[in-house]
Amino acid sequence: MFGNDTRLKARLRKKEQQLKACESRFHSIITKSSDGIVIVDRNGIVRSLNPAAENLFGVKRDELMGKPFGFRIITGETIDIDIITKTGKTVVAEMRAMETVWNGKATSYVFLRDITARKRVEEEIEILNTNLAARAAELETANRELEAFSYTVSHDLRAPLTNINGYCQIMLHVCADRLDDECRGFMQRVFDEAQRMDHLINTLLNFSRLTRCEMHSKTFCLSETAQAVAAELRQKGHERRVTFTIAEGVEVDGDARLLRVVLDNLLSNAWKYTGKQESACIEFGVTESGGKPTYFVRDNGAGFDMRYADRLFCPFQRLHSKEEFEGHGIGLATVQRIIQRHGGRVWAEGEMGKGATFYFTL
Predict the structure, then answer these.
(1) Distance between alpha carbon 349 and the CA centroid of its chain, in Å?
(2) Residue 17: inside a domain
(3) Among 156-165, 269-278, 323-332, which stretch is predicted with the lowest mean pLDDT?
(4) What pLDDT digit, counting tens, does each position of 134-182 carry?
(5) Reported pTM
(6) Where among 162, 181, 210 does a domain terminate?
(7) How far apart (Å, rounded) are the C-alpha atoms in residues 140 and 142?
(8) HSE-CB of 260 using CA atoms within 13 angstroms
(9) Are residues 260 and 307 in the same domain?
């Protein structure tokens, strides 16, 4: 009988030790928790709290012990509460509660997590979304205005321009014998300028259409597109000595029609700006930049001053005079818009008299 009592007492001591060890671990977890933990009794009175809760409320432990918790406890739900600290600062906390027994009495463990920073970010995102929605509405309005402008350009401006061209031709052909050389020269200049204006209108309309049209992406061979553009350029200027070097098998995902416009502009530019070279070299290829394929068109033509590189892709901005090289300054702006629509970027490197290289990603 005595032996049984001894063994029982030993088991009880072991259980007590295990219980104390569990309580110690539990206390350590609560103390070290980054979330605030408050123990509240059935009457809403604070019976204990951890250091993280002290930090949330901005007070010392003794200032909360035995005081009303101040917030309605809803077991099993997560709600957001605003905690006003002693200094007047507002802390937004996420509150969860669970019922338990503490020191033999029914209580609630209240878990508090500081979400002030998250809420601030959410508010900023909401403001950004509101601003984006307003911006989208502005862009939609701008697009409608652009469409109205395009209609005006294509109809209201083109009609009188067509009349000017017609009258100029009549004057030059039907009335040529009644005009002296100087008058014929004036009429020819009016006709040439009207033609130039008509070409500019076409360029503007194409620029507007290409940057707004619906895209149809597919996988295709960009090398074949480059070859086709090069063949057209050779046919137009068969008297020139131009060497085209085009990388083979370059496949891309994108809108084939729009990327044809990109290569048409870049290769045509290279053709134009190598016009004064006795032996011109134009290359299309692909390299790698930042782990992504980077496509390029390189030439040994006039080049440009890198100090003005940021002006290259602005509409109507030209780094060479129209007496040196013809054009309206829309081509590279069109290239940039199309590349941006493909989620890529375009940039250029060059040196005066030593050619230029235009790079783009998709």
Answers:
(1) 23
(2) no
(3) 323-332
(4) 988 888 887 777 767 766 766 677 778 888 888 888 888 888 788 888 8
(5) 0.55
(6) 210
(7) 5
(8) 14
(9) yes
Spatial separation of the C-alpha atoms in residues 149 and 142, rounded to whole Å = 10
Closest of 70, 26, 71 to residue 50, by C-alpha: 26
Q: Are residues 130 and 156 in the same domain?
A: yes
Q: Does residue 310 sit within a domain?
A: yes
Q: Look at residue 112 and tell me whether its pLDDT is greater than 60.
A: yes
Alpha-carbon distances of 114 from 75, 80, 107, 145, rounded to whole Å: 19, 10, 23, 48
Mark which of 114, 134, 164 sits at the end of a domain.
114
Total domains, the chain: 3
CB-count exposure of residue 96 (10 Å: 0-12, 13-18, 19+): middle
What radius of gyration, in Å, describes the C-alpha atoms of the chain?
39
Domain of residue 84, CATH code? 3.30.450.20
Domain that holds residue 103: 33-114
CA 85/CA 114 separation, integer angstroms: 13
CA angle, 299 as apex, 294 and 304 as ends, to 5°?
95
Q: Are 99 and 126 part of one and the same domain?
A: no
Are both 229 and 201 inside the same structural domain?
Answer: no
